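User: Predict the structure for this protein chain, please.
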Amino acid sequence: MIWITKILTFIFCVIVGVSGCVIVQELHMNTRQKVRQELASQVASRTAEQHQLESDVASQRSQIDTLTQTLNTGNEDSQTTRDAIANGTIAVQGSGIIVTLTDPIAAEDQKGDLPRDSNGHVIRVVSDTDLQAFISQLWAAGAEAMAINDVRIGVQSSVRVAGQTILVGVTSIQSPYKIQAIGDQNALASAVGKQNNADLYQALGDVGIYPNVSKSSKLSLKASGAPDLKYAKGVK
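Assistant: Here is the predicted structure, written as structure tokens:
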């Protein structure tokens, strides 16, 4: 009887231990699953809120653009129109010039050592600094509106390099780079011409880049996005 009692007690303890482990493990798994479900629900909710806010912002900007166009209708010389043109928030057209810079064929693949020409000069692609130099000259010469590869340059636009890609704002552009500027054709062409920028043209020529300046009787530039103002407030 004593041995039977011991055996039954041992079997009971084993059953209780195994059952306890199973119950604890089940509770632990259920808790983790609930946490995952709750986190997934929160992510889905925040994502939906973000999409709704983005939709609201787009709707508000569309209304602003519509109201701006209404104000500008029939009054091309209004201050609102002039401000919109300067800010790049409305499409414009007019005469001007096109400055084209193209990557040398030998520099399109820059893996390894950079190629060199017959004189030993390094051949490279067009950089954001090259474009900025011409853009600055054009603004200084009185350009009224500007775009690069049909991407309008607005008040918050930047021309910068990211990796091996040049961005205008957040839009990537590729060679050939065409800087379109509306304004006095003669003044703009003279400002970025080789005669008045001999050192710049010489430096670019040494690396295989040869700018081309041409006049155009009609350039059409698209509008850029409206600036997102967070700190600037109007005063009366």
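Helices lie at 2-72, 79-87, 128-140, 185-192, 198-206.
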